[in-house]
Amino acid sequence: MFALSKKNNTMFLSKVIMVEQRYLALKDSPQFQRRIEYEDKNKYFSRYILTSYVMNAITFSLFSVLLNSVYFGEKNSASIASFGLIFYIYLFILGIYNSIVFLNSIYVNNIMSPLKSIPINVNVNVPFISWFIYNASSYIFIIIPSIIFFFLLKFDYQTIFLGLLFSFIVLLLSFIISSAIFIYGGQKAKKHSSIKNVIKILSLFIFLGVFYALLENPGIFSYITVYLNSLPYDVKYLIFPINLQYIIYLNYNAPLFLRLIEIIVSVVILIIFLFVYSKIRYRLYNILMTSEENSSTEIILSEIKSDKLYKGFIKKDIKSTFRKSQNLTYIFLPVLFTIPLFLEIGTGIFSSTLIILIYLTIFVSSFYSLFLLVIEGKGIEILNSLPVTKNQISYYKSIFGLIIFAVIAMVLIIISSLLIKNIGVIDIVEFIDVLLLFYIILYTNIKRLIKKVPAAASNLNYYSFGKYPLLPVFIISIIILTASIIPVLGISYILYHVVYYSLFSFISIDIIVNIILFIIIVLNKNFFKIRKSYK
Amino acid sequence: MSFIEIKDLYKRYGNTVALNGINLNIESGQIYGILGPNGSGKTTLLKIMSAILAPTTGEVYINGIKTYDDPDKIKNIIGYIPETPALYESLTPVEFFNFIGSVFHIDNKVLKQRVDAFTSALEITKYLNEFIGSLSFGTKQKVAIISSLIHDPELIIMDEGMNGLDPKASKIIKELLKSLTEKGKTVIFSTHIMEIAENVCDNISILYNGNIAGTGNLEALKNEAGSSNSDLEGIFLKLTGDEDLDNLLNSLRDTIK
After folding, report:
1. What are the chain A neighbours of B134 within 8 Å (beta carbons)?
2. Which value does ipTM take for this structure?
3. pTM value surpassing 0.90
4. Which one of A175, A326, A402, B121 is separated from B195 by 20 to 30 angstroms, measured CA to CA?
């Protein structure tokens, strides 16, 4: 698409990678084809990437301003600092999520492989630079208002310096972790063993989940907090990353020498992460540059056997998901975000398993709506040429998602029951209830998203569904949840005043409401359609 | 009524006209070649015939069924082989054939018979349990061809389907296609290779800039081009306005100097 320039080719290639991902996602869409009739492709994509970036920056800034302005008005610097920590955690999670999607997309679409044949030195940092400059750096805007507010309250320049420095460090760390998952996930492996893949990816995510939980709420590990509090005043300001709010914000009263040490320690932390990155970047680069050559040579013996359509579909999805570590990361990534919930079972609003299950349902179904289509990748061209309707694809993909979710929900219920030391019929009823809700949400979202896929699409990646694909998905999930809960609340209110009310009856009514929603939203004549057999 | 009827078919991508009012009738039981230079609209035409793409205007009927009105029905009677083999790389060929078998509801015994027959004819039996991603381009192409034939389609549409095949496999596929047409099946394929088109096709249409530049059997094309002694390559060049290649080649040689 571009004429290669020798000057500044690192920046140039970084942009090419980003553009190519968008191009592969959009090239088959009629809107895009119409657009490039009267607009230069380069200019179109430059503007596309820039507007995405600016919109991200504006959204995150507004979000941050909205949350911080009350505390700024109250001159409550402690609350701004506490929110600051939450924003850093958010930045960290966004960084991981986004870099995994980014790396998988480059790998699956073989975007860097063609660069091997071009007589040009491809800088080993191109993937990171591309991700950071054109994508991740827009997330820093969630931190900036918080830093500015704090600065305006305390006039402490160190907040600005360390605030920005740690924004970079946190994003660098998230990229390192994603790269480690990507590399360790077995791109170079000569075996496709599904079980090994699952164990590897799962263990990485559990490790990551614990780390995330630790960041989100150090109180979970109360011994750490107790230990921290027992430390001398000076030391607890230096412990990364648990006390980020101290290092960045709440150190304005600290003695000068201590503040100097903090800056030195922060720079040392940066150097350590840069060192780790420098070690990992070559492997990452090699894998991305040779993505076309990395395929398993394993032999899988299976018999020739034709199944029912739904079975064939689900088997195909299970195999292509569990044999590819990139696809597995998509499956486990949403679960990662819910790991802290597992650790908070029985406390506060999470004293009821139902609340956690509903949270899990909304979160996982929304992400799966996108990811279950993204894992199709180039396979979308096959599906387009086969006599399978988009409705059928939505049904079968949703069943596949439901199977995985059922396992996750079951694990959560078992953990919850063990922690609360109470298991009963209500857990089974809750389980059935959230499965119904999950399927309705997943099906609705997949059906909506798949309509956006052009009939002649030859590729699907994360960017195929618009600039902000997750936002409408989440909104639809919340609408369906509301449609499910509101009637139940009404009926429960009447029951409470007239006869009787209990959580059991609440969930039972919800099941009935969900069954009605299932019939209205999911079932239609296509579901039972039996195709003519060609033998 | 012909097996395939194409009436006033237009396809536009924005301001670009990919197909500019195509009219074509194709009878069943023949191998029909679609020839044309790059960007002439071959792939677009084949995708519309396969009910993958919708036309901008115009109609395509296959066996009396309007393609985009009932794409599901059309796709059931078609075996489509794209330009580059579209396959699930983390499945083995057996698993992929099983998936195709499920989609077309093929009986287990029949599926096994057909897979055995095709894979041994195309000599890919030893690769059946390896991941498709690890196979060579030619082997992937063979897997794609088999997967498009195992449901015994009425119409086989190959978009440059001979790409990447070794001479032996190419010969086998040509013979296979001929025997399929003897049984009443119809094969439509696009190619750049004139020799294949000349040897295999009963009839040919030459597509140029979204228009039919010539159509019929070799004799009819010769008459249309007004060059009774030309081979298909000569006719092709004449009908697509590229006959004066010498000047172009001379200019190219000068550039290389």
Report:
1. 295-297
2. 0.88
3. no
4. B121
